[in-house]
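Ticket 4471: requesting a sanity check on a complex prediction with calcium ion. Repro inputs:
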Amino acid sequence: MKRKTFLKSSLLAATSAGALLSSCNADGNATQSTNAPNINTSKKYNWKMVTTWPPNFPVLGEAANLLAEWVKTMSNGRLNIKVYGGGELVPPLEAFGTVSDGTAEMGSGAAYYWVGKSPAAQFFAAVPFGMNAQQLTSWMLAGGGYDLWKEVYAKFNVVPFLGGNTGVQMGGWFNREINSVADLKGLKMRIPGIAGKVLEKAGGAAVLLPGGEIYTSLERGVIDACEWIGPYHDYKMGFHKIAKYYYTPGWHEPGTQLEFFANKAAYDALPKDLQEIVYTASLRCQAWMLAEFDMQNSLYLDKLEQEGKVQFKQFPKAVLNQLRTYTDEALQELVGADPLAKKVYDSFSNYVKRVSKWTNLTEKAFYNDLQV
Ligand code: CA
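Returned structure tokens:
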């Protein structure tokens, strides 16, 4: 009898819920027809995207093209983004300023290129010994990182979007072995961001070069060493032809976050559904890029090994420990003079502690002991 009573009351409850839902639907529809934002589905928006990459550059430039394609499809052609490679409309490193002043509505790059505008930008691209792709994405989307990023870019009238991640990079190409920190003394290396400051603390010299100039600089001895990304891109750049040693791990870039960014006024002027489409496409890119990098890098790692000309090396633990100490010093110097950078640094470093406790117990244990 009890079961029968339960069934009867459940049925009644379901009926009432159904009635409620129906009335909600009716109300909802009525509300939509009167109060919904007035979306003009025939209005078309034409945006320009300036990028820091050469046109159609593998993965990074392809990501910009894909985002434009996805947005066009999802918006049924209402938002068209024309992608310009670096140098086609403006020089690569002017992309941010061009979007900030509204000359272009959108851009693609990496936040550490804009450290000169805001020291806090560094934390949204790569921090040496910081977080890997999975952890950084977690900080961004669940740990408050993305809101801080928006805060940092707001004064430039720019809205950031996640634009993919490279995963852990390789440590770079060398023609001398790095057996101790002393081997970094006098070393001229192409290496970006905070890592450049770290190299200088070790007695080396950081040289900033755009991607297109690295090969000839290394070949002619203008630099002694360089880093770029990983086997896929590095092979296409040809570094294996002119450097003996390929070092791991990429202590300086443990999971470099790429970005899209939009002019805030242009973004705010979009109907809400198009804003969501841009955001959603950026998240698709975040997933796509890491998948693409992991696959391509694994294929090109095999290729380099099979060709047998390059010696793979690992930085000694003592070298990495010293570089970590220098990194801490460089970070303190970076945030010391800038309260917003300090605010971001506090959030970032607290999240590193929080998330690494968890991932050490699980992800790290899996990599170390369970996976072949
Ligand atoms: Ca790099």
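Notes from triage: The chain has a mean pLDDT of 90. Leaving this open until the requester confirms.
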